[in-house]
Specification:
five-stranded antiparallel beta sheet; binds adenosine-5'-triphosphate; five-stranded parallel beta sheet; 3 domains; Helicase, Ruva Protein, domain 3; alpha/beta; ATP binding; 469 residues; Rossmann fold; PAS
Length: 469
């Protein structure tokens, strides 16, 4: 295969992966014997198994209707064929199956199967969709800031007080909100999220508060419950609250005062037992000064303020996060976890991560997807992170030519053999070299910690761990 063909093939695979992940109903791809060869995230969710486990199973493990395998073997297309699937908890669910056969040289080689629930979802079933994915255990990182944040959030999780989470985009505000819900007495209830910036102003009101039949042209027969009602006995997460238009800020304030809502076009006042968690990356204080955000609403929301610091202010978390996402994507894509060259790792550590953990997650997915060798070098990193550094040599030369504290890799210790380094080993090397460069005095360790972008306490912890080895 030529390099161009190999590139096109990889791109095509990524497109297929991307398309499958966008589909919200479960999809299984099977070979001619019914063995699962691919599945999307919705399938992982329905059958409560990871992709890696799904790939060890056959169709019969998930579908109670034996006829389906016969259709796969014959390569017969199906449209809305009634089947019963057996979900992750062993429950049988009636579904409609679409079968798209895969042929090679006119021989059936497998099929793509899509399953949709047969009956219309009831309102109650819709509520069940609002389940959380995250708990505090999913908030990774050992920096003092993250440990303190988790401690405070755990403490306030049990109460019903309103929480306001601030932090830059991609820092994990929604992860934190879900974790609080999970640790609260409302965890059996729904967690309903709405992004105030993503919904057009005209629709936001009816999405939040619902509407009565005939409230406006196009309103559904029987009306529709809004997110407040859907979150009954649970938690409502108002993301990007700073983007809420002024007329809705006033309405939200009333709801928070009275704990009741009125649907659009309705007159009945409905009590809503909902815990509110709001989040924003905007500077609400400045917005109050400029008249864009209501001060009275701000104080109603600001009962328990939490702040998620940006990744660049807690760089010690990078090691843990890189390790975690590297393994996650390697498992997902059925690849071996990669090794990092010291320079590539240093490049990730030096980068300022404006998109925070979301950007880091995407970067590692990119690296695992595109990296063919076992070693991640600088040239494997996305251009934006590589910046002006285009090669390992480039960085090494740059490091060696600088006599400033930002060049500890140019210390008396020769640069480690990159190919031999695992992520953990690379981290050890960086720490040891920084200490060697700046000295073992308290001041030296302080400088080393500053250079590495970690706290002094973390540096001491790592050195203690190393001394025990
Ligand atoms: N501490 C963490 N450990 C592991 N993954 C995390 C952590 N924090 C966030 N993430 C991941 O980062 C991504 C972004 O998180 P999330 O959506 O909660 O950020 P956000 O601050 O709400 O972003 P936005 O303001 O853009 O809505 C998610 O995929 C999440 O899984």
């Amino acid at each position: 295969m030529t390099e161009q063909e190999s590139k096109e093939r990889k791109l095509l695979l990524q497109e297929v992966e991307g398309l499958l992940s966008l589909i919200t109903v479960p999809i299984l791809v099977v070979d001619a014997t019914g063995h699962v060869i691919h599945a999307n995230q919705a399938a992982e969710h329905v059958w409560q198994r990871s992709l890696a486990v799904l790939l060890t199973k056959s169709l019969q493990a998930f579908v109670a209707t034996s006829k389906l395998l016969g259709f796969v073997k014959k390569g017969k297309p199906l449209r809305d064929f009634p089947v019963e699937i057996v979900d992750g908890s062993g429950k049988r669910l009636p579904c409609l199956c679409r079968l798209h056969p895969l042929y090679i040289d006119q021989k059936p080689e497998g099929a793509i199967l899509q399953f949709t629930r047969q009956q219309m979802e009831t309102e109650q079933e819709k509520n069940r969709k609002y389940v959380t994915r995250y708990t505090f255990a999913d908030i990774r990182g050992n920096s003092e800031a993250i440990i303190a944040l988790k401690d405070s959030a755990r403490k306030i999780a049990k109460s019903d007080s309103t929480v306001l989470i601030r932090g830059e985009s991609g820092t994990g505000k929604e992860v934190l909100a879900q974790s609080i819900h999970q640790a609260s007495s409302r965890s059996d209830g729904p967690f309903v999220a709405i992004n105030c910036a993503a919904i057009p102003e005209a629709l936001l009101e009816s999405e939040l508060f619902g509407y009565e039949e005939g409230a406006f042209t196009g309103a559904k027969k029987g009306g529709k419950a809004g997110r407040f009602e859907l979150a009954l006995n649970g938690t409502l997460f108002l993301d990007e609250i700073g983007d809420m238009p002024p007329f809705l800020q006033a309405k939200l304030l009333r709801v928070l005062q009275e704990r009741r809502i009125e649907r659009v076009g309705g007159s009945e006042s409905i009590p809503v037992d909902v815990r509110l968690i709001a989040a924003t990356h905007k500077d609400l204080d400045a917005m109050i000064v400029s008249g864009q955000f209501r001060e009275d609403l701000y104080y109603r929301l600001h009962v328990i303020p939490l702040y998620v610091p940006p990744l660049r202010e807690r760089k010690e978390d990078l090691y843990d996060l890189i390790h975690y996402y590297l393994k996650l994507f390697a498992d997902k894509l059925g690849k071996e976890p990669k090794l990092f060259s010291a320079q590539a790792l240093k490049c990730l550590i030096d980068y300022h991560w404006p998109g925070n953990i979301r950007e880091l997650e995407n970067t590692l997915e990119y690296i695992v997807n595109l990296e063919i060798g076992d070693l991640v070098t600088i040239s494997s990193l996305p251009a934006i992170i590589r910046g002006s550094r285009t090669s390992e040599e480039g960085l090494a030369t740059q490091s060696q030519s600088q006599a400033t504290p930002s060049a500890p890799l140019a210390s008396a210790t020769p640069a480690p053999q990159a190919a031999e380094l695992s992520l953990e080993k690379t981290e050890e090397q960086l720490i040891l070299q920084a200490v060697q460069r700046f000295g073992k005095s308290t001041e030296g360790k302080r400088k080393a910690a500053e250079f590495l972008g970690i706290s002094v306490a973390t540096l001491y912890r790592r050195l203690q761990k190393l001394s025990r080895k």
